[in-house]
């Protein structure tokens, strides 16, 4: 990410789109978004993340499941961003499934985790997304994610 890149959505705007909050909000900024097509977002991984206390003491590594969760959250932002504010009231994006997950390199404190998701297929309220996580130009994780937009009260 270059210093000249503009932030399209900050934490406040992200919190208006998805229900996640600290310590489980894993997307800090959205840098690019193309309506129902693709998103590029980032998570600054810091040493004070709660999971580093036990994963692993003396050798902190971000759990792979949380890297995938960050990708899923970016996908949720992509889906919800396409809806009008009144249209998304009372809605939530649920993680339905994951396929083809691969973890290529560990993510450690100090990394700027770049999250890239694109919509592969959508049918009604169900979306198939392809997610990739990058650090310093290197692919560190990837997964195919299924998600569903549903009513919160369901």
Mean pLDDT figure: 94
Major beta sheet, strand line-up: 1-2-4-5-6-3
Please count the beta strands (DSSP E, at least 2 residues each). 6
Q: What does the largest sheet look like?
A: 6 strands, antiparallel
Corresponding CATH superfamily: Hotdog Thioesterase
Low-confidence stretches: none
CATH class descriptor name:
Alpha Beta
**What is the helix fraction of residues, given as a range?**
10-25%
CATH level-two architecture: Roll
List keywords for this structure.
6 strands, 18% helix, Thiol Ester Dehydrase, Chain A, alpha+beta, six-stranded antiparallel β-sheet, 3 helices, 154 residues
Kindly describe this structure:
The chain starts with 10 loop residues before the first helix and ends with a strand. It is globular. Helix content is 18%, strand content 40%. A six-stranded antiparallel sheet has the order 1-2-4-5-6-3, with helices on one face. It contains three helices and six strands. The protein has helices at residues 11-15, 64-81, 85-88, and strands at 29-34, 38-44, 91-103, 112-123, 126-135, 138-151. The mean pLDDT is 94. The protein has a single domain (11-151), classed as Hotdog Thioesterase (Thiol Ester Dehydrase, Chain A, Roll). 29% of the residues are buried. With 154 residues, the protein is an alpha+beta fold.
């Amino acid at each position: 990410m270059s210093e000249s890149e503009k932030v399209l959505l900050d934490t406040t705007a992200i919190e208006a789109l998805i229900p996640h909050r600290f310590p489980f909000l894993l997307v800090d900024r959205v840098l690019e978004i193309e309506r129902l097509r693709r998103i590029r977002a980032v998570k600054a991984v810091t040493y004070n993340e709660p999971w580093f206390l036990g994963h692993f003491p003396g050798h902190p590594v971000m759990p792979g499941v949380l890297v995938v969760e960050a990708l899923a959250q970016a996908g949720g932002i992509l889906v919800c961003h396409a809806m009008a504010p009144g249209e998304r009231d009372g809605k939530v994006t649920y993680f339905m499934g994951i396929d083809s997950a691969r973890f290529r390199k560990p993510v450690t404190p100090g990394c700027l985790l770049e999250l890239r998701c694109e919509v592969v297929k959508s049918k009604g309220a169900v979306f198939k997304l392809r997610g990739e996580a990058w650090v310093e130009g290197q692919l560190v994780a990837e997964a195919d994610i299924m998600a569903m937009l549903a009513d919160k009260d369901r």
